[in-house]
Design brief:
Length: 213
């Protein structure tokens, strides 16, 4: 079973992806993991990726597609996989389609993890972190015992700039702009299915696994 998973930042997509792939015994393939593994392998493709990353440039779509092709050709992916973090744009989706067609396959199902923007803003803007030890907190769900003071080391607990409400809303706007064409692209083929993740992640995982089994 060849799967894609989408979801806005803060929707809990990563947790769902890991648990679903574990339940279905499929490899969870993320672009970040692929890049790091390619560089660590020292392969010709990995050396190309390393050179691009060290130059500070963005890894091109063509190079990502080559990484995907290389990854899904490995033995553990013979029975299927879940791709997480790619494609992000319509041209990337079309390039992925072409590559998979060459390999004799295609996407079987696209999992869309849905959470309302307002809830995502609450989740992400409430995140706090200790400047000293990196311990994580949430202003609403798991605050430190003393406001602004880390329970573990006594360091200062802060809100990171990228977790501010304004920044979260910008990230959601960018995601919506990039992903809307992808949603239409896969919906038109009848392979996209939406799953609400406003409740517990375990419930969402159970629903996804049931739908795929």
């Amino acid at each position: 079973m060849r799967l894609l998973i989408f979801g806005p930042p803060g929707a809990g997509k990563g947790t769902v992806a890991q648990d679903v792939t574990s339940a279905l015994s499929l490899p969870h393939i993320s672009t970040g993991d692929m890049l790091r593994a390619a560089v660590a392998s020292g392969s010709e493709l990995g050396q190309k990726v390393k050179a691009v990353m060290e130059s500070g440039a963005l890894v091109s779509d063509d190079l990502i597609i080559d990484l995907v092709r290389d990854r899904i050709a490995q033995p553990d992916a013979a029975g299927g996989w879940m791709l997480d973090g790619f494609p992000r744009t319509l041209p990337q989706a079309q390039a992925l389609d072409a590559a998979l067609t060459e390999l004799g396959g295609g996407i079987d199902k696209v999992i869309m993890i849905d959470v309302p923007d307002a809830l995502i803003v609450d989740r992400l803007s409430g995140r706090r972190v200790c400047k000293a030890c990196g311990a994580g907190y949430h202003a609403t769900f798991s605050p430190p015992s003393t406001e602004g003071v880390c329970d573990k080391c006594g360091g200062e607990v802060i809100q990171r700039a990228d977790d501010s409400s304004e920044t979260v809303l910008k990230r959601l706007g960018t995601y919506a702009d990039q992903t809307a064409p992808l949603i239409r692209f896969y919906e038109s083929r009848g392979i996209l299915e939406r799953f609400d993740n406003t409740g517990s992640a375990q419930d969402t995982v159970a629903k996804v696994v049931a739908a795929l089994s």
